[in-house]
Amino acid sequence: MLTHPTLDQLHGLGLHGMAKAFTEIDASRKAVDLSHAEWLGLLLDHEKTWRHDKRLGARLRYAKLRQQASIEDVDYRTPRGLDRALFQKLADGQWIDAHDNLAICGSTGVGKSWLASALGNKACRDNRSVLYQRIPKLFADLALARGDGRHPRLL
Q1: Which of 75, 90, 113, 153 has its Cβ near the most Cβ atoms within 10 Å?
Q2: How far apart are CA 142 and CA 138, in angstroms?
């Protein structure tokens, strides 16, 4: 069987994850005997994973998070007054579904930006759109948008 026309068809249909998996499985096909259903399931699983990773990467790029942080790395023992139960509730994202706002306040150096980045990362992994902005830039953008008519769209 010729693999190049099949690869061309997969790429033409936009199934890039399947095409990549097809070449990987074809290269290791001699070592593993797969039934047709297992082979197709493996191709579909690769395509689904590839699309999910691509969407997550796009959301993380758009979010412009300040740090590479995740909620799994939060240290509750540090003296910043962070309540574990409250932070876990925030990490669930129900406040986002309720269209509530979140303001993280505290003294300098306690990790407010890191916590915001961790919550933003979790929201991106939960298939939500995120945009990280610091308050001075946000206020400047809002003032500029009010002057040129983009204020409602920016809000």
Answers
A1: 90
A2: 6
